[in-house]
Structure formats: structure tokens, C-alpha cells
Amino acid sequence: MATTTVSDFIVERLHEWGVRRIYGYPGDGINGMFGALRRAQGKIEFVQARHEEMAAFMASAHAKFTGELGVCIATSGPGAAHLLTGLYDARLDHMPVLAIAGQQARAALGAHYQQELDLVSMFKDVAGAYVQQPSVPAQVRHVVDRAVRIALSRRTVTAMVLPNDLQELEYEPPARKHGTAHSGVGYSAPEVVPREADLKRAADVLNAGNRVAILVGAGAMHAGDEVVAVAERLHAGVAKALLGKAAVPDDIPWVTGSIGLLGTRPTDEMMSSCDTLLMVGSGFPYSEFLPKEGDARAVQIDIDAGMLSVRYPMEVSLVGDSAATLRALLPRLEQKNATSWRNRLIHAGERWQRVLGDRAHAATSGRVNPQRVVTELSPRLPDGAIVTSDSGSCANWYARDLKIRRGMMCSLSGGLASMGAAVPYAIAAKFAHPERPVIALVGDGAMQMNNMAELVTVAKYWRQWASPRWICCVFNNEDLNQVTWEQRVMQGDAKFEASQDIPDVPYHRFAELVGLTGIYVDNAEQLGDAWEQALAATRPVVLEVKTDPDVPPLPPHVTIEQARHFARALMEGDPDEGGVIANTARQVMASVMPGKK
Ligand SMILES: Cc1ncc(C[n+]2csc(CCOP(=O)(O)OP(=O)(O)O)c2C)c(N)n1
Ligand SMILES: [Mg+2]
Fold it and tell me: Which residues' Cβ are closer than 6 Å to ligand 1?
């Protein structure tokens, strides 16, 4: 029997911790670990991304779609540096992810050696909760154990930096002597519930309200039934932060949909006219979309005390698991009869659906209205579908037009809002749930940034998946459109073509080149058939739609200032002036509600 190297030990220990899949990319700084993964003969599956950043996004998405630890691995120097953005994505969205990075040999460290970066310092911010570079074999056991346990228990990123010669050394358990540590495997999340007195204070605030608004985020994802039960008791409406989109289904009439810049008008109305706010598991950042300070009494539930009362001054801040805390609150809540409030929200919702329908069918200058891409998908989504979105204008349509039903999942890069996450997220979703249909919504800029390369990863692996249903929908508008509109509406600047125009690329043909199915649509009337064809395809599909960049991803209410900016941008001579005016000026002006925000 060959000796157990440090790397063999780490792989075995990670397996004991329940790790079954690692995303990454090799290199000589981490070859010891790859040798051990090979010797482990599939006990832990290795998935090869095209780029380490993508591997880190996949690890983040694995955590999001499974609730388990996500693990990514990269070589020293450039490989480790590439991981950073994906790790920040996990950190900002509170996902447990372990990064394993190689390092130069111990004897060379500090010598300005090739590919030598000070990785402990580099990871210190993103993995500040725990980053270690063990230097002797007897140290690795507790480093693995603490890196995993801290990532899981604090729902954050941790990192292990492994000098390449250490990886090859014979493993030694810690000796029984002073100056050693003796660790073990295992973590069970506690069920955290606030104290009785605090639950009572919260219930008193909620019971006193007449117009209760609930805002749920990713922390409420496992508490959908409890949110619905509390909302029914309080006759409340429920709005959803982007990461909490799948927490409650959209087919409930008093679910007002998304909040914020990508939000809906019913949510906006609810937040500006409620007298009580209950926030559950959300770090939704933009306070201006919450009630005006002092207008509403407020209660928040979050598992992380650090996220409490930072967006709105809460009267009662509860540290607790969202589902368990709502269950504990429910018997203390009185059944309300706020029928007029409920009806108001329901009517606002019905009006809004008509607005969305009109917007999706609004005429465009020859190209496909991008909203329509999502409104045609929404009713065709198969049960159990998983949808991911990239950052860009498609995140607006994902937020507003995609109707999530019970049992579906969806996510995106929320806190970091990074481009380039949708395809790696969709790949990790498919590995985690190979039998479920997975759909990524992606802008053309984000495709060019790095999502295109990950189509090669799909081509490499899709035959292993129980179902081939994996679709990447590209919004080809030849523009970095979200930012073009931000420049117009927020800044009052005309479109800067040098920074905003992007080359036209035949994404569907690229898909075909790498062995996937390509579908191209340049007429909105073909969209329904195209989605059906894509959902029935026998291999993964890239559905490329030639979309109109002149459809504005408008916030729920355009402020007077924003309308002024927009007018100024046009007066400055926006290169798209003709199309923009034809398609949007009316919408923008109709959205300006004097006296609102
Ligand atoms: C890594 C990164 N770089 C830049 C941005 C800023 N940004 C946000 S959306 C966007 C435009 C995205 O363009 P595209 O993918 O074509 O989508 P579109 O808005 O055109 O639909 C940019 C540049 C970002 N969020 N992330
Ligand atoms: Mg674009």
C-alpha cells in the first residue's frame, strides 16, 4: 500500500466532510492534490472549468442550489488570483465555499519565486474568516476541519493555501504533545430561534399594524410555507429581493414581485404605503425602496446579526432561522382582516401584469423586444426548472417578467452583481440536479466576457447529465445595454459608443461549432416555438435572440430627475436617438409620477 500523502489525506478528509464534487483547474502548484483526486477514483468528482473564476462561480452556485459546501481548486499564482471574483460572489451572498489553492514550495517562499504570490494576504479579505497556509503535515487535519466548519457555520468563504512540496509529503497525524491540535469532522447547523420575550415584542408590532408588507430574501428560501402562513395571518403582501425570488411563488396574487431598481410597481406602492414592515432573510441594499424612515414600524429576522437593522431602523431585530422563527411567531399573531389593504395590493398586481404585457408587446424598431423573450418563456417553464441570470438588462426581465412557481429554483450573482456568472451557475445547477431543466439568461457582453468559453464545459460534460435540457438564452443587442441606460437615465449622458457598443457575434453558430444546438430568433413571433424547440432538444441549446437595445430597463418609477437626465442625454445627441425616442420616450414620460420619490 502506497503511503498516504498530505493530498491523499485532504481528499479523504473532504470526503468525510461530505464533499462529492470540486470545481477547478490544474497547474503545477496544485498537482499533488490532483494526483490524490485521481487516486481517489471518483470518490470526489472533479469538474474542469475553462477559467478559475468560473470554477469559483460554480462553487458558489453549488452552495446556492444544494445548501452544501461549494469547493473550488486552483494552482498557485495566476490560478489562485483568478478565483477571486467568484469567491467574492460567494462571500457577498453568504455562501459556504472553500477555496483550495496551490503555492510554491516552502523552501522558495519569500524569494520572489515564479508564480509566488502572497496568497494568504491576497485571500485575507475574501476569506478573512479563515485562511491558512499549513507548513507541516501534522497541521493539515485541523486546517481542513476548521476551513470547512467555519465556511459552513458562518456561511462564508474560507481558503487553504497548500505549498506544492507539502502536498507530496507523507501525511502524519498530530503527535500527542504540547503544541499540536486534535480536530474532528462534523457540523450540524443549529436551529436558532429568538427568546420568548423578543418574539412577543415582534408579535406586538406586527399585530398593531393595519397595512403589513413583508420583504423576503435568500434567507427565506427554505421558509416559503412559513412566509405564506404569516402573510395570510397578517393579510400582508410579500415582496421579494432578487436572491429571494424563488422563496414564494409568483402565482399568489398578493405576492407583489421584485423590489428595487429591478422591481415592480406593486412592490413600490406597497413599500411606500405600508405601516408595518417585516423583513425576512434579506440584505436588499437600496434603502430608498423601503418605507421612508419613520413611516413604518419594522421587524427583521436574520440568522446573521451583522445584517440586522442596516437598511431600515428596526424596532425589533430577531436573530434566528427564518423558518423556525416564523413558526414560533405564528401562534402569537392575530388573524387580521385587512381586506382593503390586500385588495389594493391584488388590484395593483393585476394592473401591473397588464403594464408588463403591454411593455412586452410594445413595438420595437425591427428587433425583438427583450421582455418578450422572458414573457414567452415564463408560461413554458417546466416544473422544477432552475433559472439563472447574468448581470445586465436581462436581470430586469428575469426580476419582473419571469414567474416562478413552487418547486423551481433561480439565482444570480446578487451582492456582487458580477457579469459572467449565469453560465457557470447553470452548469453547477445541472451537476447538482442533472434531471432538472436549467436555463441561463445572458447578455451578449457577458457571453463575450467568459460565458462563451464555459459553453465548451457544457459540451464536454452534457452527455453525463441525466437530462440534456440545458439552455443558454443570449440577448444579442450589440450593446452593454444596462450600463448604456444607466448612463442615460442616472447620469444624463448620451451613449458613449466607444465603451458601450460590442461586436456582433453569432452565438448560435459558436454553439454549433462546439457541438451544441444553436437556435436563432430575430422575430418575436418565433419566440414561443423557439423555446419549445429548445426545451425539447436532445442536447444543450444556445438560443440567440436579436434583441432591441432601445427598450429601457426602467426602474418601477422614474423620478423627475431621471427623466430630466434622460432628456439631457437625448439633447446631447445620443447616437440611438431615433430608436430610443420612438420606443421609450412615451414609456419614460408615462412613468414620471409627480410627487413620487
Ligand atoms: C465584471 C463586471 N464588469 C462590469 C459590470 C458592469 N455592468 C453591469 S451590466 C453591464 C452590461 C452588460 O451587458 P450585456 O451582457 O450585453 O447585457 P445587456 O445589458 O446588454 O443586456 C455592465 C458592463 C459588472 N456588473 N460586472
Ligand atoms: Mg448586451
Answer: 390-394, 417-419, 443-446, 475, 477, 479-483
